[in-house]
User: Fold this.
Amino acid sequence: MSGRGPDPKSTNSYRFESTRLLIDLPKPEDARFLFEMMSGDDREAICGTLIWDGPADLTEMEEWVDRCRSSSFADFGFHWVIRDRLGEISGDAGRPLGNIGTRPREAPGRADVGYWLGRSYWGQGVMSEALGALLDYGFDTLDYTKIEADVFTHNTRGRRLVERVGMRQEGTIRSAHLKYGEWVDAALYGVLSDDRLATN
Assistant:
Protein backbone atom coordinates (compact mmCIF):
# COMPACT_ATOMS: atom_id res chain seq x y z
CA MET A 1 0.00 0.00 0.00
CA SER A 2 1.20 3.49 -0.85
CA GLY A 3 -0.12 5.41 2.15
CA ARG A 4 -1.78 7.92 -0.17
CA GLY A 5 -5.37 7.31 0.95
CA PRO A 6 -8.45 6.62 -1.18
CA ASP A 7 -8.66 7.51 -4.86
CA PRO A 8 -9.88 11.14 -4.83
CA LYS A 9 -12.49 10.30 -7.50
CA SER A 10 -13.89 7.27 -5.66
CA THR A 11 -17.24 7.21 -3.89
CA ASN A 12 -17.86 5.58 -0.54
CA SER A 13 -18.66 1.87 -0.80
CA TYR A 14 -17.03 0.89 2.48
CA ARG A 15 -18.52 -0.58 5.65
CA PHE A 16 -16.92 -2.03 8.74
CA GLU A 17 -17.82 -3.43 12.14
CA SER A 18 -16.65 -3.46 15.73
CA THR A 19 -17.86 -5.49 18.69
CA ARG A 20 -21.17 -3.61 19.09
CA LEU A 21 -21.30 -1.37 16.03
CA LEU A 22 -21.92 -1.49 12.29
CA ILE A 23 -20.52 1.53 10.48
CA ASP A 24 -21.94 1.93 6.99
CA LEU A 25 -23.36 4.37 4.47
CA PRO A 26 -26.42 6.36 5.52
CA LYS A 27 -29.67 5.31 3.87
CA PRO A 28 -32.40 7.75 2.81
CA GLU A 29 -34.61 6.55 5.66
CA ASP A 30 -31.86 7.41 8.18
CA ALA A 31 -32.24 11.14 7.56
CA ARG A 32 -35.22 11.51 9.91
CA PHE A 33 -33.54 9.54 12.72
CA LEU A 34 -30.38 11.64 12.42
CA PHE A 35 -32.25 14.94 12.20
CA GLU A 36 -34.36 14.15 15.27
CA MET A 37 -31.24 13.27 17.28
CA MET A 38 -29.66 16.62 16.38
CA SER A 39 -32.80 18.67 17.06
CA GLY A 40 -34.79 19.85 20.04
CA ASP A 41 -33.32 19.96 23.53
CA ASP A 42 -30.20 18.02 22.52
CA ARG A 43 -29.20 20.27 19.62
CA GLU A 44 -26.83 22.54 21.52
CA ALA A 45 -25.19 19.66 23.42
CA ILE A 46 -24.41 17.87 20.14
CA CYS A 47 -23.86 20.69 17.66
CA GLY A 48 -22.08 23.06 20.04
CA THR A 49 -18.84 21.10 19.75
CA LEU A 50 -19.00 20.52 15.97
CA ILE A 51 -17.40 22.65 13.26
CA TRP A 52 -20.73 22.22 11.43
CA ASP A 53 -23.70 23.95 13.08
CA GLY A 54 -26.02 21.05 12.25
CA PRO A 55 -28.93 20.79 9.80
CA ALA A 56 -31.40 23.65 9.60
CA ASP A 57 -34.24 21.28 8.70
CA LEU A 58 -35.00 17.74 7.55
CA THR A 59 -34.44 18.68 3.91
CA GLU A 60 -30.86 19.68 4.66
CA MET A 61 -30.26 16.36 6.41
CA GLU A 62 -31.75 14.49 3.43
CA GLU A 63 -29.40 16.39 1.12
CA TRP A 64 -26.47 15.48 3.37
CA VAL A 65 -27.41 11.79 3.12
CA ASP A 66 -27.58 12.08 -0.67
CA ARG A 67 -24.12 13.65 -0.79
CA CYS A 68 -22.70 10.90 1.41
CA ARG A 69 -23.97 8.33 -1.07
CA SER A 70 -22.97 10.03 -4.31
CA SER A 71 -20.04 12.43 -3.80
CA SER A 72 -16.40 11.68 -4.43
CA PHE A 73 -13.84 11.51 -1.65
CA ALA A 74 -12.18 14.69 -2.93
CA ASP A 75 -15.45 16.63 -2.93
CA PHE A 76 -17.02 15.49 0.35
CA GLY A 77 -14.92 12.88 2.12
CA PHE A 78 -16.38 9.60 3.34
CA HIS A 79 -19.14 9.65 5.96
CA TRP A 80 -20.93 6.81 7.69
CA VAL A 81 -23.76 6.17 10.10
CA ILE A 82 -22.84 4.50 13.38
CA ARG A 83 -25.39 1.73 13.95
CA ASP A 84 -26.27 -0.49 16.89
CA ARG A 85 -25.19 -3.74 15.24
CA LEU A 86 -27.07 -6.23 17.44
CA GLY A 87 -29.34 -3.96 19.46
CA GLU A 88 -27.17 -4.11 22.59
CA ILE A 89 -27.09 -0.32 23.00
CA SER A 90 -30.50 0.96 21.88
CA GLY A 91 -32.54 -2.25 21.96
CA ASP A 92 -33.04 -1.98 18.19
CA ALA A 93 -30.57 -3.76 15.88
CA GLY A 94 -29.40 -1.48 13.07
CA ARG A 95 -30.65 1.71 14.68
CA PRO A 96 -28.61 4.84 13.83
CA LEU A 97 -26.73 6.20 16.84
CA GLY A 98 -24.71 8.98 15.21
CA ASN A 99 -22.23 9.78 12.45
CA ILE A 100 -18.51 9.48 11.81
CA GLY A 101 -16.47 10.45 8.78
CA THR A 102 -13.15 11.46 7.29
CA ARG A 103 -12.23 14.23 4.85
CA PRO A 104 -9.03 14.70 2.86
CA ARG A 105 -6.40 17.12 4.09
CA GLU A 106 -4.02 18.94 1.76
CA ALA A 107 -1.48 16.13 1.33
CA PRO A 108 -2.41 12.67 -0.03
CA GLY A 109 -2.72 10.11 2.75
CA ARG A 110 -3.75 12.66 5.38
CA ALA A 111 -7.34 12.99 6.52
CA ASP A 112 -9.26 14.51 9.38
CA VAL A 113 -12.04 12.87 11.33
CA GLY A 114 -15.34 14.25 12.56
CA TYR A 115 -18.16 12.62 14.48
CA TRP A 116 -21.19 13.08 16.68
CA LEU A 117 -23.39 10.80 18.77
CA GLY A 118 -27.02 10.99 19.88
CA ARG A 119 -27.11 12.15 23.49
CA SER A 120 -29.04 9.09 24.67
CA TYR A 121 -25.96 6.99 23.87
CA TRP A 122 -23.32 9.08 25.64
CA GLY A 123 -21.32 7.51 28.44
CA GLN A 124 -21.44 3.96 27.05
CA GLY A 125 -18.12 3.90 25.21
CA VAL A 126 -19.84 4.06 21.82
CA MET A 127 -17.75 6.82 20.30
CA SER A 128 -14.49 5.43 21.64
CA GLU A 129 -15.38 2.14 19.95
CA ALA A 130 -16.44 3.83 16.70
CA LEU A 131 -13.40 6.10 16.50
CA GLY A 132 -11.02 3.25 17.30
CA ALA A 133 -12.64 1.15 14.58
CA LEU A 134 -12.34 3.99 12.08
CA LEU A 135 -8.66 4.52 12.85
CA ASP A 136 -7.96 0.82 12.32
CA TYR A 137 -10.00 0.73 9.11
CA GLY A 138 -8.53 4.01 7.89
CA PHE A 139 -4.99 2.73 8.17
CA ASP A 140 -5.58 -0.90 7.19
CA THR A 141 -8.05 -0.46 4.31
CA LEU A 142 -8.33 3.20 3.28
CA ASP A 143 -4.53 3.49 3.20
CA TYR A 144 -4.15 6.65 5.26
CA THR A 145 -0.74 7.61 6.61
CA LYS A 146 -2.08 10.08 9.16
CA ILE A 147 -5.47 10.90 10.66
CA GLU A 148 -6.06 14.22 12.42
CA ALA A 149 -8.79 15.82 14.52
CA ASP A 150 -9.52 19.47 15.28
CA VAL A 151 -11.13 19.69 18.73
CA PHE A 152 -12.32 22.98 20.21
CA THR A 153 -9.97 23.74 23.10
CA HIS A 154 -12.89 24.12 25.53
CA ASN A 155 -14.29 20.68 24.58
CA THR A 156 -12.80 18.67 27.44
CA ARG A 157 -14.82 15.52 26.72
CA GLY A 158 -13.81 15.57 23.07
CA ARG A 159 -10.14 15.99 23.91
CA ARG A 160 -10.24 13.06 26.33
CA LEU A 161 -11.89 10.93 23.65
CA VAL A 162 -9.22 11.42 20.99
CA GLU A 163 -6.46 10.94 23.56
CA ARG A 164 -8.10 7.69 24.69
CA VAL A 165 -7.76 6.20 21.20
CA GLY A 166 -4.12 7.21 20.90
CA MET A 167 -4.19 10.60 19.20
CA ARG A 168 -1.60 13.12 20.36
CA GLN A 169 -1.93 16.88 20.56
CA GLU A 170 0.38 18.49 18.02
CA GLY A 171 -0.48 22.12 18.58
CA THR A 172 -3.18 24.75 19.02
CA ILE A 173 -4.71 26.71 16.16
CA ARG A 174 -5.88 30.12 17.31
CA SER A 175 -9.16 31.39 15.85
CA ALA A 176 -9.42 28.14 13.92
CA HIS A 177 -13.17 28.04 13.30
CA LEU A 178 -16.07 30.49 13.19
CA LYS A 179 -18.74 29.04 15.48
CA TYR A 180 -22.05 30.81 16.03
CA GLY A 181 -20.44 34.04 14.83
CA GLU A 182 -17.40 33.82 17.14
CA TRP A 183 -13.88 32.61 16.46
CA VAL A 184 -12.81 29.64 18.57
CA ASP A 185 -9.44 28.00 19.11
CA ALA A 186 -8.86 24.34 18.27
CA ALA A 187 -6.41 21.77 19.54
CA LEU A 188 -4.91 19.80 16.65
CA TYR A 189 -4.53 16.08 17.32
CA GLY A 190 -2.98 13.45 15.08
CA VAL A 191 -2.04 9.80 14.88
CA LEU A 192 0.21 8.04 12.38
CA SER A 193 -0.34 4.55 11.03
CA ASP A 194 2.90 3.50 12.75
CA ASP A 195 1.61 4.87 16.08
CA ARG A 196 -1.55 2.82 15.77
CA LEU A 197 0.35 -0.35 14.93
CA ALA A 198 2.51 0.14 18.01
CA THR A 199 -0.50 0.37 20.34
CA ASN A 200 -2.49 -2.57 18.90
Notes: The two ends are 19 Å apart (CA to CA). The chain has a mean pLDDT of 95.
